[in-house]
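Subject: Re: docking follow-up (zinc ion)

Dear J.,

Thanks for your patience while I sorted out the input files. As discussed at Tuesday's group meeting, I've set up the holo structure prediction with zinc ion included as the bound ligand rather than trying to dock it afterwards. The sequence and the ligand SMILES I used are pasted below, so you can double-check that they match what you have on your end before we go further.
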Amino acid sequence: MTTHKQIRELLEFKSEDYPVISFYLNTHVGEISPDEIKAQAHSLIRLQEKKLSHKPFSHAQRESLTKDFQKIYQFLEEKPEFNFKGLAIFTCSSKNFWQVYELPQKVKDSLIVDSDPYIRPLLAILNQFHRLAFLLVDQRRAQLFELFMGEIKDHTELMTADVPSRVRYAGWYGLEEKRVSRHIEQHIQEHFKQVAVKLYLLYKTHQFDYFILSAQKHILPEFEQHLHTEILDRVIERLDIEPFTLSLNEVKEKALEIERRFVESRLNEEVEKLITEAQKGRLASLGIQNTLEAVNKKAVRTLYLVEDMTISGRECHNCGYLTLDEKECPVCGKVTEPVQDLFDEVVEAVLYMNGDYYTLPPNTLLREYGGIGAWLRFK
Ligand SMILES: [Zn+2]
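The structure tokens for the complex came back this morning:
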């Protein structure tokens, strides 16, 4: 699972004396074979190697790059299948730096050699996903799971505490029993408190965005009294399921379903707002023509795209101008070249102008508007 720590290490990675490779690959899930994907990666690397042979690198720098390419080849060779949509690899062998991200969204093929990792495309994808914490609690135990980009991690071992079990105690005349039950009650409160504290610490270190809480109905309100308001403000669902009753897979399915509903309703609201604002002539664009205009003016703040839609178009390789069908670039006068996936080029241009983008599920309202729209910085 991609952890917050891993992302932070990437953001903080600096290599002054050795080049860093950032490698992005669209893995075309279900469209082409693993061998074809590998062949595509190889040709991308060979092309870059050729370009690099003309650059003024030192011997040690070249050795580092050679090792990087070998590592990428080896990684791809050892993959029997690609069950994710996009791949991002960052490597700098001489600094012992190597990171792999298997992504639930496609990326545009690219191989960049620079002194820093090229992270914009990765961040734009990560930005679209939430880190979810799923807590199941009862009077003695707690289970915690983390979910991110469709993957799940069990953190239950971090939540365990020792509380005496609610065993019936046969005391004298009920007196002893009363004392014991008061003792147990204290332990339960202590347990809730400990779980709440541990959850808050993990929230701070793992950077959870949202929480799903689960406990028997009569327990949950009592437990929630112990939670920090920052956590309570981020609860997106409450369930009535006891800990240790679901398999890991069932937990994952449940959490994914809740996340999907949550994200969809938020994106739907956002798209409705976008449509209204665009129709009022405010800082929003709808459809390919208006959005292209905004992209060419570098005016896009946030782009929205429907995941299974695209269109072909043309691009000026000289200045980056994007168009549906103009053969001559109106900016610099050069001849434009055809591009198969214009949406891909739009995403790249938006990333370049430090914008964000969101991929929408097929059933969105934006579909009726050409599958593309954007919030703008200016008009
Ligand atoms: Zn041009």
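A couple of observations from a first look. The CA atoms of residues 135 and 334 lie 58 Å apart. The first strand starts at residue 20 and ends at 26.

Let me know if you'd like me to rerun anything.

Best regards,
T.
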